[in-house]
Specification:
Radius of gyration: 15 Å
Distance between the termini: 31 Å
Strand content: 35-45%
Shape: globular
Number of strands: 6
Helix content: 25-40%
Structural class: alpha+beta
Strand order of the largest sheet: 1-2-3-4-6-5
Largest sheet: 6 strands, mixed
Length: about 120
């Protein structure tokens, strides 16, 4: 198991309430490859940084270079705009290795999550 399920278990009522309270459609963008849905991304722009809230690829698109391409494009945009990119990832999530390969470094560790930053 990976992700929040492996860390905290699953509480359906909590998941639905959290989603209803926090989901803002305008903050999410679909990732499309050709005519197929490949995933979604949620990125928030702040004055001096981008915050990668969430990125999720469908299973068929994982480990095929798409995540890395998205990160490279985001980092290039951030450099052009003189911003940093920050994110929070669960320690049990293997995506942290992808982030590290693209220059993200750990800036905080709360035991369950890593805060990472790329400049």
């Amino acid at each position: 198991m990976t992700g929040s399920f492996a860390t905290w278990g699953w509480d359906e009522a909590w998941q639905r309430e959290f989603f209803t309270r926090t989901y803002v459609a305008g903050r999410h963008a679909l990732i499309v490859r050709g005519e197929d849905l490949a995933g979604r991304i949620c990125l928030t722009r702040h004055w001096r940084r981008f915050f990668l809230r969430d990125i999720e690829l469908v299973a068929a698109e994982r480990n095929r270079g798409l995540g890395g391409a998205i990160l490279r494009a985001m980092l290039e945009l951030a450099r052009d705009e003189r911003r940093v990119v920050e994110l929070v990832v669960l320690k049990c999530n293997p995506a942290q290795h992808l982030y590290a390969r693209h220059g993200f470094v750990v800036t905080a560790d709360d035991g369950a999550r890593l805060t990472m930053r790329a400049e």
